[in-house]
Specification:
There is one protein chain. This protein is an alpha+beta fold. It has a single domain, classed as 60s Ribosomal Protein L30, Chain: A (2-Layer Sandwich). The chain is 25% helix and 27% strand. The protein is built from 2 helices and 5 strands. The protein has a 5-stranded mixed sheet, with helices on one face. Strand 1 and strand 2 form a beta hairpin. The chain is globular and about 35 Å long. 29% of the residues are buried.
C-alpha cells in the first residue's frame, strides 16, 4: 500500500489546513488513493488504509505521525474497537497522540472508520 499518496476530498473541503503552528487534517475514510474507491475488506484493512492516507497527507507537509497531537476515530461499530486498536498501535507507534473514539450511525461511502487529526507544524 502506498504511503506517498492520499485520495482527493469527496466534498467541498480541504484535505488539511494550517493555522499557525497547527495542521488540521480533515477526516479520512479508507479510500484507495489511485481509484478513489473504498478499499474492500474488514476493519483491519480499512484502518490500515486510513492511517496510510493520513501519513500521505502528513508527508506532503513534511511531517509524520510523531507530529500528530490528537486524533479522533469514528467507528460505525464499536465492536470493531479491539481490531482497529491493534492495527492503530502497530502502525502509529509511540509516542501515541491523544485520542477519542466515537461510535457513529454512518460514515461516507459506507466506510466503517474515519479518522481526523491535528498535528504540530
Amino acid at each position: 500500500m502506498s504511503v506517498n499518496a492520499f485520495p482527493v476530498p469527496v466534498g467541498p473541503y480541504q484535505i488539511a489546513r494550517r493555522h499557525g503552528n497547527l495542521l488540521f487534517l480533515s477526516g479520512q475514510i479508507p479510500l484507495d488513493p489511485d481509484s478513489g474507491n473504498l478499499v474492500e475488506g474488514g476493519i483491519s484493512i480499512q484502518t490500515e488504509r486510513v492511517i496510510l492516507n493520513i501519513a500521505g497527507v502528513l508527508k506532503s507537509y513534511g511531517l509524520d505521525w510523531k507530529s500528530v497531537l490528537k486524533v479522533t476515530v469514528f467507528l460505525t461499530d464499536l465492536n470493531d474497537f479491539p481490531e482497529m486498536n491493534a492495527v492503530y498501535s502497530r502502525l502509529i507507534g509511540e509516542p501515541y497522540p491523544a485520542r477519542s473514539t466515537i461510535g457513529v450511525a454512518g460514515l461516507p461511502k459506507s466506510s466503517r472508520i474515519e479518522i481526523e487529526a491535528i498535528a504540530a507544524v
